[in-house]
Design goal:
Layout (H helix, E strand, L loop, with lengths): L1 E5 L9 E4 L2 E4 L5 H12 L4 E4 L5 H4 L5 H12 L24 H22 L3 E3 L21 H10 L4 E5 L6 H7 L5 E8 L24 E6 L5 H17 L4 E6 L18 H12 L4 E5 L5 H20 L1
Parallel strand pairs: 1-4, 1-5, 5-10, 6-7, 6-9, 7-8, 9-10
Antiparallel strand pairs: 2-3
Bound molecules: N-[3-({4-[(3-aminopropyl)amino]butyl}amino)propyl]acetamide (SP5) and zinc ion.
Length: 321
């Protein structure tokens, strides 16, 4: 396993998000990646730092050109230290723009796409520590700290070489990833997430959303109740893995969020820190396909290092024995 690290992610560091109109400190902060990286380094995994940007045409394969141009134009108006909450192409009040947001989001996208290319070349598991995250970004809307959909762009690249399954285990439903692939049968989207009846993003992630047109049956949602036990969570995860095998995926993209942790400040299912090793081991044992791991959420900065370390220990265990 190799780690890809975005070099300039800390240039994107908004001060505020708005929760029902009230300013709150921005939860998706640079220290998240520092903490996750610490966990990776404790396992001695090789790290490649990158500062490349995804070409606009590549991003425009999945995002509407007019949206990409809007993000660029709005950020270019900003002076150092300023942040702007755009009025358009946005779904919520969690996704502000700062002067470097456009560039840093393109670099985050590049990290995932590069990961896909490396996976195609070597077959080795790649873990892209993308920041900003991506799974809430729709074809023409920023949302939930996400601007461009890193995992979807990686899946798009992989889909030119075979069938791709995206397994999304962030606490929140990946409304962006679902929307982007909703009518496609070559990319399966399977997600485990907190019930959207009561959790962000509210608009999607219900079990009756299963795809449309040729994509019918290729979106699978597993909403989970707030009181879900680890035991039940693992049973549903097993089911999701079986669905990926039934689809005969050639490649897997794992949208990995640590906001399912019981003490996450904005998410929080009942996953304790030790159980991330169980989750990692289950995935590594049963998903034999070449796999790209893409970082999504996870906001308990003081614990992210341990959560990542435990997940990776579990994930690497089958290889060690
Ligand atoms: C990638 C990702 O995990 N994005 C998640 C974005 C969801 N943000 C919603 C946070 C709302 C919770 N804030 C509640 C504060 C109440 N005082
Ligand atoms: Zn999340």
């Amino acid at each position: 396993m190799r780690i890809l690290l975005p070099k300039n992610h800390r240039l994107h560091s908004p001060e505020y998000e708005y929760y029902d109109g009230t300013r709150e400190p921005y939860a998706e902060k640079p220290e998240r990646i520092d903490s996750i990286l610490k966990g990776c380094e404790r396992l001695g995994l090789p790290v490649e730092e990158r500062a490349e940007s995804a070409p606009r045409e590549v991003v425009e394969k999945l995002h509407r050109a007019h949206y990409v141009a809007y993000v660029e134009a709005k950020t270019s108006e900003l002076k150092p230290g300023e942040q702007l909450m755009p009025s358009n192409f946005i779904r919520d009040t969690y996704t502000p723009l700062t002067p470097d947001t456009y560039d840093v989001a393109l670099q985050s996208a590049e990290l995932a796409i590069h990961g896909a290319n490396e996976l195609l070349r070597s077959g080795e598991t790649i873990y892209a520590l993308c920041r900003p995250p991506g799974h809430h970004a729709e074809s023409d809307a920023m949302s939930g700290y996400c601007y461009f959909n890193n995992a979807a762009l990686a899946a798009e690249q992989l889909s030119r070489h075979g069938k791709v399954a995206i397994l999304d285990i962030d606490y929140h439903h990946g409304n962006g990833t679902q929307e982007i692939f909703y009518e496609r049968d070559d990319v399966l989207y399977v997600s485990l997430h907190a019930d959207p009846a009561t959790s962000f993003p509210f608009i999607s992630g219900f079990a009756n959303e299963t795809g449309a047109g040729t994509g019918k049956g290729f979106t699978i949602n597993h909403p989970l109740a707030a009181d879900t036990s680890v035991k039940h969570y693992l049973e549903v995860l097993q089911k999701a893995v079986n669905e990926i095998q039934d689809f005969s995926a050639d490649y897997v993209v794992l949208s990995l969020g640590f906001d399912t942790f019981e003490h996450d400040p904005i998410g929080g299912l009942n996953i304790d820190e030790a159980s991330y090793a169980t989750i990692g081991e289950l995935l590594a044992t049963q998903l034999k396909q070449p796999t790209l791991i893409v970082q999504e959420g996870g906001y308990n900065v003081d614990k992210l290092d341990v959560l990542a370390e435990n997940f990776l220990k579990g994930y690497l265990k089958p290889q060690d024995s």
